Amino acid sequence: MYTPDLVILRKAYPGKPLWSEYIFQILIFCFFLMSVLSMPTFNPTIRDYIFVEFKITRNSRNNILVSLFPFILSIIICTLLPDIILIWNILGVTVYNFNGYIIPLMLKMNYLRQNNKSYWKYACGIGLCVISMLIYLGDLIFRQFVKSKNKDL
């Protein structure tokens, strides 16, 4: 059975009762469960984006299905990549690149396009950022699988 790094790094104190460790593990499980469940519940932006982009009609059945979509997607990702450190690295790289480079370049490109000015340099910059981010993420995932394969030997 695979155990994530957060639980592996937790060591029982000498002389500490065993029941307190079970409580700790139950609390960690509840924390992760509530974190994953709160994503589709308390982030209406995800739901609105899915409704608008996929042109889904808004009714109660579709609202429930669209709310469950990010939850199911996060379960699939955590099942395929159960290492929490790898997921933090992937999220860090994507958030850093989107908030620091890609979104500001897109805003500048949109401003130039509205004013009928040349924006090809910014489009190339966005392409280079996305390509470099994908190469880095591929290398990160490849190294993780090589490390886990060597650990099994």
Features of the shown structure:
single chain; mainly alpha; 6 helices; 0% strand
Tell me what the structure shows:
The structure is a single chain. The chain has 153 residues and is an all-alpha fold. The chain has two domains: 1-81, no CATH class; 83-153. Helices cover 81% and strands 0% of the residues. The protein is built from six helices and no strands. It is extended and about 70 Å long. The mean pLDDT is 77.
The fraction of residues in strands falls at: under 5%
Biggest pleated sheet: none
Unreliable runs: none
Report the average pLDDT across residues.
77
How many helix segments?
A: 6
Percent in helix = over 70%
Indicate the topology:
Elements: H1 5-8, H2 18-42, H3 44-53, H4 60-80, H5 84-114, H6 120-152
Helix pairs in contact: 2-4, 3-4, 5-6
